[in-house]
Task: inverse folding
């Protein structure tokens, strides 16, 4: 099934894969906790793009429903993650994950 602009499913899945890899590299290579959280959000958005593209292609609204649940989980992750980051910054005055050792004795 082709959209009005001529993009097929492979274009959307390719874009989704590129966004997911960029997010994964951000999680693995960056040390700033804010950038890590943004990279996780990019990975979740890449998964949403793939779900929506596949759902649209097969004509099933299940992909939209699953993407909605992924967005709900992402919203919860942002709320909890930012609260943790604010508490961490107030306690240690840094959000660099290399300098934080809260779980060590």
Result:
């Amino acid at each position: 099934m082709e959209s009005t602009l001529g993009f097929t499913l492979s274009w959307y899945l390719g874009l989704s894969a590129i966004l997911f890899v960029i997010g994964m590299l951000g999680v693995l290579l960056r040390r700033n906790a804010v950038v890590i959280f943004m990279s996780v959000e990019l990975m979740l958005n890449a998964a949403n793009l793939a779900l929506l593209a596949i759902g649209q292609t097969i004509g099933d609204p299940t992909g939209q429903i699953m993407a909605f649940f992924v967005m709900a989980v992402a919203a919860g992750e942002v709320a909890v993650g930012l609260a943790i980051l604010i508490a961490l910054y107030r306690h240690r005055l840094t959000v660099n994950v290399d300098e934080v050792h809260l779980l060590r004795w």
Summary: The mean pLDDT is 88. The domain at 9-92 is CATH 1.10.287.3510 (Helix Hairpins). DSSP finds three helices and no strands in the chain. The helical segments are 9-29, 33-58, 62-92.
